[in-house]
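Response to reviewer comment R2.3. The reviewers asked that we include at least one raw input/output pair. We reproduce the pair for Nuclear transport factor 2 family protein here without editing.
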Amino acid sequence: MADTKMIIEQAYSAFNKRNIDGALALMTEDVSWPKASEGGRVRGKEEIRAYWTRQWREFDGHVKPVEITEEDIGKIRVRVHQLVKNLQGDVLWDGEVLHVFTVNSGLIAAMDLGDQTDTTSPTAAFAHRS
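Raw output as returned:
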């Protein structure tokens, strides 16, 4: 678990620093990722790059792992504190959410929003666009 925990922590750190290449280096080529700010999913590193680039043009999001636990082999639950602001600095969301990662061969293969059943719409953190 130590190596997996380190990979997850590195991914969050890279995301928070807007280091797309650093985050993508920790993922499989066909990684599956939710589009929390738009709804739906993206697949593959270049789709994640495009999605995050769009997201960061509209929002300033920061996520900090609070608790990382291994459910099954390759399934990691991460409770995170998520702070989302618009680019003017107004807080849109400040709370905890659950992310569930699938890790294969030491790389992130998928991330799911553990507390959301409807993945076709933006999450509550991004519902109030300003």
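The mean pLDDT is 90. The two ends are 40 Å apart (CA to CA). Further pairs are available on request from the corresponding author.
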